[in-house]
Amino acid sequence: MSLSLLLLISAVILFLAYRLYGNFVYKKFGLDDSRKAPSHTHRDGVDYEPSKPIVVLGHHFASIAGAGPIVGPIIAVTFGWIPAVIWILAGGIFFGAVHDLGSMAASLRTEGKSIGVIIRNQIGAKGKQLFVLFSFSTLILVIGVFADIIAKTFVSNPGVASASIFFIFLAVAFGFVNRMVGNRNIAFILVTVVGVILMYYFVYLGTQLPFVLDYKIWILGLLAYAFLASVTPVSLLLQPRDYLNSYLLYGMMIAAVAGVLVANPQIEMDTRVVASSESLGYVFPVLFVTIACGAISGFHSLVASGTTSKQLDKESDAKIVGFGGMLIESFLAIISVGAVIVLSRTEYVERLGAEGPVALFSTGLGGMIATLGISETFAVGFVALTVSAFALTTLDTCTRLARFTLQEYFEDMPQPAAQVLAKNRYLSTFVVVILSILLLASGEFSTLWPIFGSANQLLAALALLTIAVWLIKKNIPATFVTIPMFFMFTVTLASLGLFAWKNYQEKGYVLAVIAALLFVLAISLIFLAFKSLKKEVKEPAKV
């Protein structure tokens, strides 16, 4: 079988899913443009700022993609490429896209607030407190890990650092010009074309003007940038940078598909399904935890309800941004699988262990892009730069999300100090950055990171639970949400149980305890949800 045929079949399936199942899900959520979106009713020029759907899609896609749909699928091919492809397509359509659009829809009807506040409204204050503490801790961990990854990348490849800095200044300039342009479509298109051309030129310029700094200085610089990105109006930095950066990923995906069509490589890996791996564990539940981004990822619910819902110009934009953005990410995950299944299983295992998933993806995809007549060295470097650029996007988005989460946690508390923290974005962001620095200084993030996969999928299960309760209380049939919800809880609880037991046997008591606590958290929120439904299901729905 040729890789071209796999990509074509996957693209057709995802397109049809968007047109057919996407319409079904969109109607179920009852989104309606006659209602003003929170970006208008709560417009503050900082967090709530309406924008064109293509701009919001760029922000959302850049924020949710990162390295997730690359690393996870490539590692999961260990179990076989066929189960990986099936989970990406089925998970992306029936799980991830429903999860992302549902999180966005519930947030639109809750003043653009995050999943934590929606849990408070639908399940209760205790549920909100548990979820917010969990999600905030997860975000601090992600900030610490990605700051470490990006700093090490900048140290090892100063050209990537230079290009990334150029991108930031370009984004600020684009944001100012775009504000001047306003809603004039032709002018916006021209500004976009110029911005994208300059962005690709800066890819080349970065290789010519490498920027060299020490690791610790990069860490402080990155977190200082994340602070500014969190408190700066979204229209001046976050929106334009993510929008322009999305064209890097679009360009990489288009070039990859074109390269595959030209080279028409055959799938060399066998179709064998591996039930268990010595390094990973059993295919169930590990496959469904390893491939998160690309199928379903709890982190998406934080982005969809945290930053994206505050930028949608109208409710109908949620379909292309939420449902469509997830399916684009699923296609990226299919491309990631395609980058390695042109190898034999033996070569794949050897190179994955020696190079790691990102390097394997860069060399594999770079080789395909090189068939278009581009230098292979440049193509590989371009792919690596694209991955790094999206890691930086994840860093600043996570910082803003952590700030929202912290503010929403304290907004219900009457104490003056709590209200200051809830209302002052500078102070709350400062707390986030300080906690991230302390985590990095302690080195604990490297110990805690292995549990992130299970924690991330627990976020997804909890978000689906919240969406299901929200729909049921509105007397809307929620089977299309509850089936994915029950499956994800099964996956998550099985994964956490196995993880806790494994670490207990290996005397990794800290991780075993954390896994056990997350297990208890999941059970507690399920109990609170059913208690809430039993008590209030007959009451008028909250919107």
Automatic annotation (TrEMBL):
Membrane topology reported for the UniProt record: Multi-pass membrane protein
Cellular localisation: Cell membrane
GO annotation, biological process: cellular response to starvation
Pfam families: CstA
Gene Ontology cellular component terms for the protein in this record: plasma membrane
Domain (CstA N-terminal): residue spans on this chain: 5-349, 354-495
Keyword vocabulary terms for this entry: Cell membrane, Membrane, Transmembrane, Transmembrane helix
Membrane-crossing segments per the record: 70-98, 130-151, 157-177, 186-205, 217-238, 247-267, 279-299, 320-344, 364-393, 426-443, 449-472, 479-502, 508-530
Protein family: Belongs to the peptide transporter carbon starvation (CstA) (TC 2.A.114) family.
Protein's name according to its UniProt entry: Carbon starvation protein
Record organism: Algoriphagus aquaeductus
